[in-house]
Amino acid sequence: PCRDTRVLQGRFCRGANEKAAIRLEIRALCGMKSLRSVDPRGMYYGITVVVSFHPLFITKVDQAFHVKCFFEEANRGLTAELGV
Questions:
Q1: pLDDT tens-digit readout, 19-38
Q2: What are the transmembrane regions (predicted)?
Q3: 36-47 as b/e, with b when 16 or more CB fall inside 10 Å?
Q4: Which of 41, 72, 76, 78 has the fewest CB within 10 Å, making it most exposed?
Q5: Strand partners, 47
Q6: How far is residue 39's CA from residue 62's CA, in Å, rounded to a whole number?
């Protein structure tokens, strides 16, 4: 089965299961792009995932998905006492 298998370029899942899953870490070296945003404050992450149904041939059912995520930073207020 394909469960818990990282499917990256050059690696293929040959299980009998019809469902495949992929988990990518944000700091992984897998071609993921990151971009800091000032307004709104946070980080954008993006990666293109190509789903191929044959390891050697391009087929008409192959698809590519550009996945984008945004993680907004929590708004942290700064409080401090000042003595004059």
A1: 666 666 666 666 788 899 99
A2: none
A3: eeeeeeeeeeeb
A4: 78
A5: 67
A6: 36
